[in-house]
Amino acid sequence: MMIRFFDFIFSLIGLIFLIPLLTLLFILGLFESRSPLFMQKRIGLDQKIFTLVKFRTMKLNTLDLGTHLVDSNSITNLGYYLRKFKLDELPQLWNVLVGNMSLVGPRPCLTNQKKLIIERKKRGVFNVKPGITGLAQISGISMNQPTLLAKTDLIMIKKIDLYFYFLIILKTINLVFKRKF
């Protein structure tokens, strides 16, 4: 209950505070691809499908696959920087605000990531809201390691409380600011 309160407040403040940056990135995306937002079906709480919103980082006709499965030539020039500094994730604050996601939770998987879905089902990972960041992200575990990812998600779910929630957020911010230009 308290986590949802903080999710709502932080996402609302973040969206308001970041309006100038979000607007700039949207306009730059319009010039590059004419379609700056990328909306994709993902699996959320209780395996319900929701639409995740991100800034587009790949060319328009790129296959709908996990990032680790797509050719790096598909990444746009702007997309390279959006990914490097995790700016492509900022529109997900909308998903948090409306309640599809949390700031902290297992990253939502694609509907075609069958192995990950099986591993997460076995461990009850779909019993919590997906998040923008989580233990796997700050630990460098990617979607191409489905069993390890699901196990790490479960560890996070068992540990999550307000302290751990804030710890994950602070570690994520620290990692983003450590990236070099």
How does this model look, in words?
The protein has one domain (2-176). 50% of the residues lie in helices and 12% in strands. It has helices at residues 2-17, 19-33, 77-84, 92-98, 114-123, 135-138, 146-159, 162-178, and strands at 37-43, 49-55, 102-104, 109-110, 131-133. A 3-stranded antiparallel beta sheet has the order 2-1-4. A two-stranded parallel ribbon has the order 3-5. α5 runs parallel beside α7 (146-159). The longest helix has 17 residues, at 162-178. 33% of the residues are buried. The mean pLDDT is 91.
What portion of the residues fall into strands of 2 or more residues?
5-15%
Please report the number of helical segments: 8
Enumerate the spans where pLDDT stays under 50 for 5 or more consecutive residues.
none
Name the helicity range.
40-55%
SSE ordering: HHEEHHEEHEHHH
- Strand arrangement, largest sheet? 2-1-4
Shape: globular
| Main beta-sheet annotation | 3 strands, antiparallel
Please tell me the overall pLDDT.
91
Number of domains: 1
Q: Specify the structural class.
A: alpha+beta
- The first-to-last residue Cα distance is 38 Å
List the helices and strands and how they pair.
Elements: H1 2-17, H2 19-33, E1 37-43, E2 49-55, H3 77-84, H4 92-98, E3 102-104, E4 109-110, H5 114-123, E5 131-133, H6 135-138, H7 146-159, H8 162-178
Parallel strand pairs: 3-5
Antiparallel strand pairs: 1-2, 1-4
Helix pairs in contact: 1-4, 5-7
Keywords:
12% strand, alpha+beta, 5 strands, three-stranded antiparallel beta sheet, 181 residues, 50% helix, single chain, two-stranded parallel sheet, 8 helices
